Amino acid sequence: MKCEQWTPIPHTEHLFQSLSLSDLHDSRAEATNRNVSENIVEVKSVADFAHQRLLERKFGEVVQFCDDNADVFTEIHDISSSTITLSTGSPQGCVLSPLLFTLLTHDCSARHPSCLIVKFADDTAVVGRIANNDESSYRQEVEHLEGWCRENNLCINVKKTKEMIVDFRRGKHLPPPLHIGGTAVEVVSSFRYLGVNISNDLTWSTNTSYLVRKAHQRLYFLRRLRRAGLGSSVLTSFYRCVVESVMCTCITVWHGSCSAAEKKALQRVVKAAQRTVGCSLPTITDTYTSRCRKRASCIMKDPTHPAHALFAPLPSGRRLRSIKSRTTRLRNSFFPEAVRLLNSGGPL
């Protein structure tokens, strides 16, 4: 499920990599009696839902801070705007804002072991694993989230709420529609979540096509800059900032599972940019490899990361323990691939 909410996480890739932790048991191998439902719930803005009574109920010590800083104004150089008083929320740019988001949403958590609630800034996903066609825990989790939003002055926008069902069984059947507030939730085959297009067949063709199309649109501006006479260094910087940054969004999540045709389509964008810039540019595969190594190194250095235990060294201390996988999808995902890359780089 997708809700526009809450707990800040440093990087988008961190979220998808955390999500894949629950998939280490190979979904296709168990697809004969299981399917996964994922709901995306849209709620109205949470930037100003921190009402005083809600703050007092959950934690009272920061209420005085918000009261003392309720009068705000904008200042540009020596010019200041008129002062207004905030009755809800916290001052914009306040250092307490991330902490307030975390504290206010701390009690929004899954109650069933087969369900997972993932909160990222103002987007929330509810993932439920359904076994033997028993959807009771999943639907109870959705009802619990709906009640939590109501208690915390949040209104779910059912029109923007989506449900996606991942089911690899041969005898597929659509479950009864999910209702929120008396309105049926739309079932979709794919949706865009945190900048990545996720499909119910767990392929990345929709996401790759979107990125290639968006990158080609931005190549137009790169060609205009070359016609204006800018040098290669400026063109390269523009490519890295405007084109590559879009094309490589969360690349550690999806690149390993892309087909050969999809990787060629991405590389064609790089070659087109290379002809425009006039110098060599890193390939998509090189970018993926370097980012995998960097991300894995950061996880290994952070013992509080939920995936830290997956990078366990062998008794010799020279290599990491490989992650067993029964399917190609899991084998090409981030964690097994990162372990292989680190092991191929020599002693740790």
TrEMBL record:
Domain Reverse transcriptase stretches: 1-198
Domain of life: Eukaryota
UniProtKB keywords: Nucleotidyltransferase, RNA-directed DNA polymerase, Transferase
GO molecular-function terms, A-Z: 2-oxoglutarate-dependent dioxygenase activity; methyltransferase activity; RNA-directed DNA polymerase activity
One Pfam family of this chain: RVT_1
InterPro entries (UniProt xref): AlkB_hom8_N, DNA/RNA_pol_sf, RT_dom
Protein name: Putative RNA-directed DNA polymerase from transposon BS
